[in-house]
Amino acid sequence: MASPIAHSVSGYILGNILLLEQIKVPKHKKLRLHIYAIFVSIFADFDFIPQIITGERFHRGLTHSIFFTFIFSVIVSFLFSQYQHKPYKQIFLFTLIIYAFHLLLDFFTAGGEGIQLLSPFTNTLFKSPIYIFPKVDHSSGFWAFSHIITISFEFTYSVLMLLGLSFWQRLRNLRRTKS
To answer: If you count Cβ atoms within 10 Å of the first and of the last residue's Cβ in the chain, which end, N or C, has fewer?
Structure first.
């Protein structure tokens, strides 16, 4: 699975591109939007909590489905738009895209059985035949040497994505100054 590192960085970047461009906010309120974007981008993986409590498999189940993505986006967007006094539709689309991006990252991750995109209607697991992210070998323990490959890959992914965001922002600023 893509780790919280890749999910958080992806949420941060999408937050910059999608929301901060569309909704004008004072600089002191941008931090809230970044935190919100990161929260949304990793929320699907909070399904480990009931798994720890019950011992039942929850990871990549309901919280990794299109149904849950939509319900979560409706509820959380409403609450956040009220808190921020911003248009619901923009916050909803922003939330939906960021949460769905989490599913996309997990879909393209090697290892595991896949994700239950159509839960609760079916337990069918979906996974890509093409992988972007290497698998995490959970059975070898938290401090396994094999995790260095995954962490290195996700660190590289994160750095490249952040550099891409920086380049995009500079290009956008150049275009604004020329107009």
So the answer is: C
28 or 7, which is more confident?
7
What is the rounded CA–CA span in Å between residue 54 and residue 31? 35
CA separation for the pair 7, 98 (Å, rounded): 9
How is residue 94 written in tokens?
A: 């922003």
Q: How many domains does the chain have?
A: 1
Backbone angles phi, psi at 175, to 5 degrees: -65, -35
Mean pLDDT for all residues in the chain: 86
Where do the DSSP E strands lie in 81-153?
Answer: none
Its domain, for residue 174, covers 4-178
Q: Which amino acid is at 161?
A: M
| pTM, two decimal places | 0.87
**Other C-beta atoms lying within 10 Å of the C-beta of residue 141:** 10
